[in-house]
């Protein structure tokens, strides 16, 4: 008895290949985020002005966002090509050690970025318009 086994779509193969390429750059992007964080911490310790502190905070946010996107792409690629078309395969992929590792890494980066967005970016006071 032969069972019909659907082939993986060409689109899924292309998406996985693209995600794999983006995910390979994750270590470099994570290092870039670490450098941006060190620069932000240096600026905070030096007591620079609010504009410079905001610029350093925004640079760190951009670096974290790039690293998060690369981690998400690496996670999708690690789950397997069938996970692009099938939610059950996606859930099974997350249950593997490699899928769980990437899921934890994505959640860690997402939490770090959101915490930074809430508390780490300096707010520059805006001038109040004169009443009149």
- Summed over residues and divided by their number, the pLDDT gives a mean of 92
How many domain units? Answer: 1
Largest sheet: none
Radius of gyration (CA) equals 21 Å
N-C termini distance = 86 Å
Helix tally? 5
Number of strands: 0
Q: Assembly state here?
A: single chain
Helix fraction by DSSP (H/I, runs of at least 4):
over 70%
**Element-level helix/strand string:** HHHHH
Structural class: mainly alpha
- Spans of at least 5 consecutive residues whose pLDDT stays below 50 are none
Q: Tell me the strand percentage band.
A: under 5%
Shape: elongated
What does this protein look like?
This is Plectin. By secondary structure, this protein is mainly α. The chain has one domain. Helices cover 73% and strands 0% of the residues. It contains 5 helices and no strands. It has helices at 10-24, 26-46, 50-79, 87-94, 97-119. Helix 3 (50-79) packs antiparallel against helix 5. The model has no long low-confidence stretch (mean pLDDT 92).
Q: Keywords, please?
A:
single chain, 132 residues, mainly alpha, 5 helices, 73% helix, elongated, Plectin
Short description:
With 132 residues, the protein is an all-alpha fold. The chain has helices at 10-24, 26-46, 50-79, 87-94, 97-119. The radius of gyration is 21 Å and the shape is elongated.
